[in-house]
Amino acid sequence: MKRINFKNKILYIFALLIIVTVIYQAIILAKLSDVKQARKYIEENSKTCHICADCAIFSQKNFTQEKILVPLLVWGPNNQIQGFRESLYIANALGRKLVAPPFFPNWNHLANGSSVIHPWNRIDMQLLTKHYDIVSPQKVVEICGPRITLNLSSGIVSHDPNRYAIFKKYLGLDSWSNAFVFPISDKTLSPEEENRPLSNAIDKTYLNSIYKSDEKCVILEYPWNSIPAYDIFVQLKSQKMKEEYKEVVDIIKNTKRPAKGSKLKANLKIYFLNIR
Ligand SMILES: *[C@@H]1O[C@H](CO)[C@@H](O)[C@H](O)[C@H]1NC(C)=O
Ligand SMILES: *[C@@H]1O[C@H](CO)[C@@H](O)[C@H](O)[C@H]1NC(C)=O
Ligand SMILES: *[C@@H]1O[C@H](CO)[C@@H](O)[C@H](O)[C@H]1NC(C)=O
Asked: Which ranges does the record mark as transmembrane (predicted)?
């Protein structure tokens, strides 16, 4: 029997080690080049345009004759996505077109909440705009003018006052100090509803009874959980989904996170905007 001698064994082990190391390094290098590419993409896009990058994905229709709804999102990333979905449902119910609004980093992200995230870095707009007319954030002033005077409030309170300023700056809006707070329904409110009046947004008749307006452009301030996530979950699990939930489910299906890599880009984007 031929035996591998001691010296050869050591050589084999060395060779193996080298191969493993090379593969490992290749993996690391590939990852680094991803980061480098994303950084390059971001720097190029940020230099040339703040808001218009990727705006071609939005509908090129002329929305001048339409009624518009601009949501101001609240809290963390998942809350914001939930709020965005609700806004689309509410906009549809009111016969308005939804603007893709700025998103925000998490409330504790990078300390002071002064940065902004493009909507297409949070939602796959290519997918969404195949199914719904979504207005580019760049078009808001063109359609609405610099002042939006109707503030539809969901009743939710935010503790991040910075977001007003960032929101206005991103969309190019002036002050909206004259914002009119919409009188919330005339029905008798339970103590819970007094804090969060809009709690059954799934009901389109009810939505129209409190939010219907001739005003061309409105802000929806802090949409969140007015169609309770739990109710949607129950409908998704049930054998026979209620008719009124089909649209919400359709919206959820079409508001996925952007394709792989965009999350990284979004993170770097925050970093980039912050260090400028
Ligand atoms: C959109 O239509 C309006 C009239 O309805 C017109 O005044 C405006 O110039 C149009 N805008 C664009 C970008 O075509
Ligand atoms: C909009 O309405 C809410 C609820 O009353 C209020 O807290 C908020 O300050 C209003 N926003 C503006 C910009 O006036
Ligand atoms: C918040 O971030 C901005 C932008 O990077 C920076 O200029 C500012 O000093 C920061 N403020 C605080 C209180 O950290």
From this structure: 12-30
